[in-house]
């Protein structure tokens, strides 16, 4: 390893959170002037590794070596002092929206201590302009950043890194929110950085981009590095195999429900670039999973189906009757219920009791002569608590004291006394323990047996293959593929979800 | 141990303070703890309580309504003018101010719910507009029986006897406004505890997005809360005119502060930790007792503001210390 003197080396990095190892023995190397892809499924440890590199976390063990010398990186400022910078997906947090492009690009210079006190705007504007044009970006430097598009903001951020003498830049899923053209332009900029001798780390879920742009690929899985290879010595199939590994033997209690006639018909549903021309059907008793990577548009789709966001076009029918999707109340009246992803913020009211949460959607039916019947309310709560096995000391307990899985059961349970025909679940097993997980699968199976139509959105492919009758793959807001349960393989799902469906035909 | 003591203080602290203040004034002045004086206190807080009930509505949906004081001023002079200037029958004198209160509430909710201006800013602007409207309407003069009009003639009408009864009369020895106040507190309490809309308001205030995703039509609910706020302020204005027997300019100026203080004292009554109408009532009692007792002690009138402000600060401090402690 004599020639490792040039470049950035992370050696044998380990990190645990509350005793749970997130990274163990990870080696990762970036050379000046290369683009190095860092890949892995959700939770593989990519972001933890990058947060260590950028000073947001400190590692428990291992060293970071730059140009042969050990670098102590404990804070984001340390990272910057070592020339390590980040371009996060949320560029807005790094920019000051009320200030102009120049002020943002030259922020370091302007706010540097020991300056002369006078700002020479003419030369500042000219300098900002020249940095931007180096990147091939033509953005009026006197414009406010808040008026720029997201892609332009990314460029402003990158321009700032250049003025701060960046040597290594971490791109954390920068293309996820971009259009194709915008992504193209960003690739041009990355190429430019590479030519200037800057080492780029590129995190993305879109595999075709990786194979076009990157010199080397590192794959992580379960907190370990499982592969590093030159791009020309590997291919999409191998990378996908390494990302998934071979260790999935979870059991899913799949019950076979009788599948009836069509209940839910979605046609050409669209909203901006999040959801584009999505059409599908779900029949009574059928569980249809919609899988996709983070950012594919699943949550947006679920909110559209439920009237939580406004659609641009398309329509949704339940039993052939077109739904009014102007707000969730109308969607519920039309027969759709949503169990949202963010259960503590959206699914339940944490400071209210279990009982009051469970009766919220059915207050009308609990009301007699204008007053809520406490007796009916108690009976309803007791029956749902028993049916779903919600572990709570009493229906009067505030839901904030329940475990994640039991909170999720409350979020599901509130719909059980309504007469909706379609249940939409958005990542219902996120953050719940194994026991509650299989309870949730069992509940969903029972709903299907009762003839409900189930839409199950998830980024966990194994879950989809475990419980769904059919699996639709979503990528960049579109449905990219459709599989029956028997014919789907994880490799195929991931391939289509990464936008590789077309590549392989 | 420490946290148990804190919980106890939070649950019973405000009731103990009320008891302590009453005890203190009773020992200080023998005329304080008499039937006459206690009903006087209740009568004096009846108007504040109505306005504070309105504030309870807006705070329940996690909003705020600064315009209640101005609404009181407006409805007071309108009720007076309807009798003194326009000789209208009693039902018009009562219904029109209520409608005006509802309209102010609708305008507030239009700005806050539809146009999405932050509640404090929207109602701050409306507070000034309504205050300006009521002074423009009266040209800055209070309205009373046989007042001289600008054209030199005397006002044609007078305050209706049955109207004055609302503010000054007694029934079974109890002042009428006190009876009205107790009825209102009970009804609103029933509304929040046992009706669908009351429950939905509480849920909307607790977490608007979760309530919306559970099928609550949150815009309607919030609109209704602001309308209720305006209507209860209007009732306060009508009672004010009936009690004083004139249409005072700026009648409601001090009521915003007092009613907000009452509601926040109410947060901590029996450890509710959120707006509740029973607590609001006790909050109003505390303020009424303090003001009455201080008058008996012959403290300077202007010290009232210092006391009211201090009560509000204390109530807010207790509430937020408690809420932040709960968060950790």
TrEMBL record, chain B:
- For this protein, the parts annotated as crossing the membrane are 12-29, 41-59, 66-86, 92-113, 120-137, 171-194, 224-245, 251-270, 277-294, 306-323
Coarse class of the protein's main subcellular location: membrane
Identify its membrane topology class: Multi-pass membrane protein
Superkingdom is Bacteria
Keywords, in A-Z order = Cell membrane, Membrane, Transmembrane, Transmembrane helix
Q: Which Pfam families does this one have? A: BPD_transp_2
Subcellular location per the Swiss-Prot or TrEMBL entry? Cell membrane
* Family matches, as InterPro entries: ABC_transp_permease
Q: Cross-referenced PANTHER family, in alphabetical order?
A: ABC TRANSPORTER PERMEASE PROTEIN YPHD-RELATED-RELATED, RIBOSE IMPORT PERMEASE PROTEIN RBSC
Q: Can you name this protein?
A: ABC transporter permease
């Amino acid at each position: 390893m004599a020639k490792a003197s040039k470049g950035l080396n992370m050696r044998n990095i380990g990190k645990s959170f509350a005793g749970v190892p997130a990274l163990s023995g990870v080696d990762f190397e970036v050379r000046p002037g290369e683009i190095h892809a860092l890949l892995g499924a959700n939770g593989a440890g990519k972001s933890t590794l990058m947060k260590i590199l950028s000073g947001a976390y400190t590692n428990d063990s291992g060293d970071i070596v730059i140009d042969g010398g050990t670098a102590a990186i404990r804070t984001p400022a340390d990272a910057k002092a070592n020339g390590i910078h980040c371009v996060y997906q949320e560029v807005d947090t790094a920019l000051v929206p009320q200030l102009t492009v120049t002020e943002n690009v030259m922020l370091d210079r302007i706010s540097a201590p020991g300056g002369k006190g006078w700002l020479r705007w003419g030369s500042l504007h000219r300098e900002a302009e020249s940095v931007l044009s180096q990147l091939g970006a033509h953005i009026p430097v006197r414009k406010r950043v808040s008026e720029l598009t997201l892609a332009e903001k990314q460029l402003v951020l990158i321009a700032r890194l250049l003025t701060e003498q960046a040597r290594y830049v971490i791109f954390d899923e920068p293309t996820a929110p971009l259009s194709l053209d915008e992504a193209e332009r960003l690739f041009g900029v990355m190429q430019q950085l590479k030519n200037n001798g800057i080492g780029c780390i590129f995190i993305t879920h879109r595999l075709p981009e990786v194979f076009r742009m990157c010199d080397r690929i590192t794959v992580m899985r379960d907190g370990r590095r499982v592969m590093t290879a030159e791009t020309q010595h590997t291919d999409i199939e191998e990378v996908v195999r390494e990302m998934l590994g071979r260790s999935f033997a979870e059991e899913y209690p799949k019950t076979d429900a009788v599948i009836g006639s069509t209940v839910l018909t979605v046609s050409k549903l669209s909203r901006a670039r999040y959801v584009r021309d999505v059409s599908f059907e779900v029949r009574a008793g059928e569980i249809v999973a919609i899988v996709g990577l983070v950012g594919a548009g699943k949550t947006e789709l679920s909110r559209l189906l439920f009237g939580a966001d406004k659609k641009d076009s398309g329509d949704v029918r339940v039993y052939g009757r077109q739904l009014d999707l102007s707000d969730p109340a109308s969607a519920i009246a039309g027969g759709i219920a949503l169990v949202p992803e963010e259960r503590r913020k959206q699914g339940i009211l944490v400071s209210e009791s279990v009982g009051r949460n469970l009766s919220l959607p059915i207050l009308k039916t609990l009301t007699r002569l204008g007053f809520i019947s406490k007796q009916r309310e108690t009976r309803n709560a007791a029956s749902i608590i028993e049916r779903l096995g919600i572990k709570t000391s009493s229906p009067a307990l505030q839901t904030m004291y329940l475990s994640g899985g039991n909170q999720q059961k409350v979020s599901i349970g509130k719909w059980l006394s309504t007469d909706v025909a379609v249940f939409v679940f958005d990542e219902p097993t996120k953050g719940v323990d194994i026991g509650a997980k299989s309870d949730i699968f069992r509940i969903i199976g029972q709903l299907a047996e009762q003839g409900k139509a189930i839409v199950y959105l998830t980024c966990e492919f194994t879950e989809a293959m475990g419980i769904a009758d059919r699996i639709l793959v979503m990528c960049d807001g579109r449905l990219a593929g459709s599989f029956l349960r028997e014919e789907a393989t994880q490799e195929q799902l991931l391939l289509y979800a990464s936008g590789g469906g077309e590549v392989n035909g | 141990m420490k946290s148990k003591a804190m919980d106890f203080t939070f649950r019973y602290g405000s009731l103990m303070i009320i008891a302590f203040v009453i005890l203190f004034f009773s020992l200080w002045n023998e005329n304080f703890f008499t039937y006459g004086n206690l009903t006087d206190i209740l009568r004096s807080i009846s108007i504040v309580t109505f306005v504070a009930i309105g504030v309870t509505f807006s705070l329940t949906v996690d909003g705020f309504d600064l315009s209640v004081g101005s609404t009181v001023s407006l409805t007071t002079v309108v009720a007076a003018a309807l009798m003194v200037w326009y000789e209208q029958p009693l039902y018009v004198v009562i219904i029109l101010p209520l409608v005006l209160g509802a309209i102010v509430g609708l305008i507030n909710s239009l700005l806050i719910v539809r146009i999405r201006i932050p509640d404090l800013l929207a109602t701050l602007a409306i507070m000034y507009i309504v205050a300006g409207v009521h002074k423009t309407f009266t040209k800055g003069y209070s309205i009373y029986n046989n007042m001289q009009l600008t054209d030199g003639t005397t006002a044609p009408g007078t305050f209706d006897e049955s109207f004055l009864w609302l503010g000054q009369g007694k029934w079974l020895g109890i002042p009428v406004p006190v009876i009205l106040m107790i009825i209102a507190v009970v009804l609103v309490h029933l509304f929040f505890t046992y009706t669908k809309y009351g429950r939905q308001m509480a849920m909307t205030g607790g977490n608007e997005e979760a309530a919306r995703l559970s099928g609550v039509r949150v815009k309607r609910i919030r609109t209704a809360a602001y309308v209720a706020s305006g209507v209860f302020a209007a009732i306060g204005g009508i009672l004010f005119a009936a009690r004083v027997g004139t249409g005072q300019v700026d009648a409601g100026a001090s009521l915003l502060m007092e009613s907000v203080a009452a509601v926040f004292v109410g947060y901590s009554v029996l450890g509710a930790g959120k707006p509740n109408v029973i607590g609001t009532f006790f909050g109003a009692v505390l303020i009424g007792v303090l003001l009455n007792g201080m008058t008996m002690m012959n403290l300077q009138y202007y010290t009232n503001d210092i006391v009211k402000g201090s009560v509000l600060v204390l109530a807010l401090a207790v509430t937020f210390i408690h809420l932040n402690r709960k968060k950790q």
